[in-house]
């Protein structure tokens, strides 16, 4: 004969099993559920903005500046989720996912028949590309080291980027690994700062009195340059970049479009 106590235990066990199964099913369905985005709208996936600048990432600033300059329809989705390539920013357009700011720009140029470099000669486009490679693949790493590694203990860093210290620590560890592999992280702090100063001087000397990199009209590379310049304005007080801003204020701030300053 089954006792009342046994029935109660079975009831509880059955209830727990049902609730557990329901919970797992809900979680599974939730993971499979896809966000429905408006048709023919570029969805720009960005990590959340910070107080001192449009974004912590120069590549996010670069891409959004391009979208504005090209007057393309877009809406922003703030998320910590990365693209399939584990990169941010990234976009979704009519169900298609594209990663990497430069590949995104090239994709949009073809999709919307846009050419922000149409006013440049082949020679000017070559110069612009070389400048872009300098700031994105050399200067960027030096600035990242200055912000998250050399200024790691600077209290003003947490004021500029108000996130838990463990996140800053994680960024620091990742950067140390990435920059060592890239090469620049094998140098001393003074050597890295020397590299950055040389790049910034070359950039500012080339821009000179011009309104934009190649003259009175912006090109794609201006978007990349603005992304990097915006980062120099986010630097902790202990960063060498604060001195750079004082020396080259006119050129640096002059390259910040209205609404982003």
UniProtKB/TrEMBL annotation:
<comment type="similarity">
    <text>Belongs to the FAX family.</text>
</comment>
<dbReference type="InterPro" id="IPR033468">
    <property type="entry name" value="Metaxin_GST"/>
</dbReference>
<dbReference type="InterPro" id="IPR050931">
    <property type="entry name" value="Mito_Protein_Transport_Metaxin"/>
</dbReference>
<protein>
    <recommendedName>
        <fullName>Thioredoxin-like fold domain-containing protein</fullName>
    </recommendedName>
</protein>
<keyword id="KW-0812">Transmembrane</keyword>
<dbReference type="InterPro" id="IPR040079">
    <property type="entry name" value="Glutathione_S-Trfase"/>
</dbReference>
<keyword id="KW-1133">Transmembrane helix</keyword>
<dbReference type="Pfam" id="PF17171">
    <property type="entry name" value="GST_C_6"/>
</dbReference>
<dbReference type="InterPro" id="IPR012336">
    <property type="entry name" value="Thioredoxin-like_fold"/>
</dbReference>
<dbReference type="InterPro" id="IPR026928">
    <property type="entry name" value="FAX/IsoI-like"/>
</dbReference>
<dbReference type="GO" id="GO:0005737">
    <property type="term" value="C:cytoplasm"/>
</dbReference>
<feature type="transmembrane region" description="Helical">
    <location>
        <begin position="12"/>
        <end position="31"/>
    </location>
</feature>
<feature type="domain" description="Thioredoxin-like fold">
    <location>
        <begin position="58"/>
        <end position="150"/>
    </location>
</feature>
<keyword id="KW-0472">Membrane</keyword>
<feature type="domain" description="Metaxin glutathione S-transferase">
    <location>
        <begin position="197"/>
        <end position="239"/>
    </location>
</feature>
<dbReference type="Pfam" id="PF17172">
    <property type="entry name" value="GST_N_4"/>
</dbReference>
<dbReference type="InterPro" id="IPR036249">
    <property type="entry name" value="Thioredoxin-like_sf"/>
</dbReference>
């Amino acid at each position: 004969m089954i006792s009342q106590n046994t029935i109660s235990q079975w009831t509880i066990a059955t209830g727990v099993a049902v609730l557990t199964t329901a919970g797992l099913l809900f979680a599974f369905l939730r993971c499979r559920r896809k966000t429905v985005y408006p048709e023919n709208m570029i969805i720009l996936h960005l990590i959340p903005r910070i107080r001192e600048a449009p974004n912590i990432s120069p590549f996010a600033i670069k891409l959004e500046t391009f979208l504005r300059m090209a007057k393309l329809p877009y809406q922003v989705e703030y998320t910590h989720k990365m693209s399939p390539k584990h990169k941010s920013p990234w976009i979704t357009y009519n169900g298609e996912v594209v990663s990497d700011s430069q590949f995104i720009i090239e994709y949009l140029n073809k999709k919307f028949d846009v050419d922000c470099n149409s006013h440049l000669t082949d020679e000017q486009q070559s110069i612009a590309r070389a400048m872009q490679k300098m700031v994105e693949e050399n200067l960027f790493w030096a600035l990242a080291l200055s912000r998250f590694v050399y200024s790691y203990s600077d209290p003003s860093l947490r004021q500029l980027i108000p996130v838990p210290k463990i996140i800053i620590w994680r960024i620091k560890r990742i950067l140390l690994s990435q920059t060592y592999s890239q090469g620049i992280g094998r140098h001393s702090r003074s050597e890295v700062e020397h590299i950055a100063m040389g790049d910034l001087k070359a950039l500012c000397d080339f821009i000179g009195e011009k309104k934009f990199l190649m003259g009175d009209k912006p090109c794609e590379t201006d978007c990349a340059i603005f992304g990097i310049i915006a980062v120099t304005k986010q630097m902790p007080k202990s960063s060498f970049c604060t001195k750079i801003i004082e020396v080259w204020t006119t050129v640096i701030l002059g390259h910040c479009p209205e609404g982003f300053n």
